[in-house]
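At your convenience, could you comment on the folded chain following this short note?
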Amino acid sequence: MSQTIRKQTFLSRLATPLAAVVMAITLTSPAQAEDNPYNLIDPASVSVGSLGDAKPYAFTTAAGEFTGFDVEFLRNVLGRIGFDPEQILFTGQEFAALLPSVANGRFDIAAAAIGITEKREEVVDFSDGYLAGYLSVLSGEDAVTDDPASLAGKRLGVVQGTLQEMYARKTFTDTDIVQFPDNNTGVAALNNGTIDAHFLDYEAAKTYGERYDLAIKVNIPSFDAPAGFAVKPGNDALREALNTAMHEAMEDGTWRDLYQKWFPGSPMPKQYLPTTN
């Protein structure tokens, strides 16, 4: 047999299994898509990036378990989509790394009272908003008053990448802004005199104030940047499923009940409450 004939025979034999492989891939692709309708990193679980020190939004207990308003609300929402609690995996991370970690595929969702801003929407996609509140200046110094002008010349702590940092750099232009990876570190610096005040959300400020005998000096409304769940850009299936389940939880009163549990006595935005009694 000539070399040319042997080569043609070999290629003919090779083509048959290759065609079968191609056909198998073609036939199984739709099934694989159905098995992962929300484009998750692992179809069997939901990977969530969060914070371990942002009480009452997201924090870890002494046993190392994640809890808080955002955590419980997301668990309820994902349960409505079809995920059991053991399929929802929370991991703590510094706030500044949360959105990049969602964008690059390390997490499916980021949940940590993350305010929706145009700048952040350049990095990730967001669900609809589910939480709004206040930004607060916490301090133990008499020189820091309820007048934001009293921050001029002072050292003000912020958690890197937060709404507080963005607002402070834009508004408190005569103030020395000092970045921290989390609120625990910032409040520790406040207590030891490294900074004069710390800028954080109202609910967390209230908790730290009670714990360390510090005062909330300034409250600034942040209703124009409600918190949302962050998802990878283009993952519309997951984002839309979150939105549907979130609004169901608001309409049946679940959101209201969780809010009253974690923010007792705080005013509730009407847009998150049931439209019928």
